UniProtKB/TrEMBL annotation:
Signal peptide residues on this chain, from the entry's feature table: none
Designated name of the protein: Ester cyclase
Organism: Cupriavidus basilensis
SUPFAM superfamilies given in the database record: NTF2-like (SSF54427)
Pfam families registered for this protein in UniProt: SnoaL
Family matches, as Gene3D superfamilies: 3.10.450.50
Tree of life domain: Bacteria
InterPro entries with a match to the protein in the record: Cyclase_SnoaL-like (IPR009959), NTF2-like_dom_sf (IPR032710)
Length: 142
């Protein structure tokens, strides 16, 4: 497989994770797409840096924002590492970081890099603008 083919296949796996797992709550697909030895180098608060922690985060986000979904603005791949810039959207209908539901629509930007090996996500590095979410929910000053 050429470098271009590896990169395109990796990008497709990440798009499926974004659209079908995060955006639709397809937990069976999560198990297919994530390696058992997955490592998150930048886990979110109260999340472990492993596969179970990633699934827990995804479930928490969908519980807090049942219409949670992302718009991918661009992706770039360098071999098996895919960097994605996207904006997440959702409506606050459940508990999030200790905040009771507000019914407010939120959005936040994320840049992350994920390594895909043999069709499975093995590593993650990322930055999410959760500060802006807390502002949008009224927990922090604008």
């Amino acid at each position: 497989m050429t470098q271009v083919n590896v990169s395109e296949a990796a990008k497709a796996v990440i798009r499926r994770n974004t659209d079908e797992v995060q955006g639709s709550g397809n937990w069976a697909l999560f198990d297919e797409l994530f390696a058992d030895d997955f490592l998150d180098h930048t886990p979110q608060p109260d999340c472990t840096p492993d596969k179970a922690g990633a699934l827990g985060l995804y479930r928490k986000l969908r519980e807090a924002f049942p219409d949670f979904h992302a718009v991918i603005h661009w992706q770039r791949a360098d071999g098996d590492v895919v960097t994605t810039y996207k904006t997440y959207h959702g409506t606050h209908r459940g508990n999030f970081l200790g905040l009771a539901p507000t019914g407010r629509a939120i959005h936040f930007e994320t840049v992350d890099a994920m390594r895909v090996q043999n069709g499975k996500i093995t590593e993650h590095w990322g930055v999410a603008n959760l500060y802006s979410v807390l502002q949008q929910l009224g927990a922090l000053p604008q």
